[in-house]
Amino acid sequence: MRSLVALPKAPLHLHFTGSMRHTTVVELAERDRIKLPPALVDQWPPVLSAADEKGWFRFQRLYDTARSVLRTE
């Protein structure tokens, strides 16, 4: 029997939105007339800090905005 360490691994927890190319997020937003915040357009990549007490909420807001370009009707 082989060691678990030696077995090949697969990414089981990969967020589709987080793995999209930046240009794809911008193109989809433009296509659907979704206004993106400057941190997702001009200030790429967004500056986030774990030391900032609002860092998680800022990340979540940006992530939710990027995710919104994937919604279809």
Order of helices and strands: HHH
What is the count of helical runs? 3
Strand count, sense and barrel status of the largest sheet are:
none
Extract low-pLDDT stretches. Answer: none
Word description of this protein:
The chain has 73 residues and is mostly helical. The protein contains three helices and no strands. The chain has helices at residues 22-31, 38-41, 55-68. 5% of the residues are buried.
Brief account:
This protein is mostly helical and about 70 residues long.
Q: In terms of topology, how is this protein built?
A:
Layout: H1 22-31, H2 38-41, H3 55-68
Using brief descriptors, characterize the structure shown.
73 residues; mainly alpha; extended
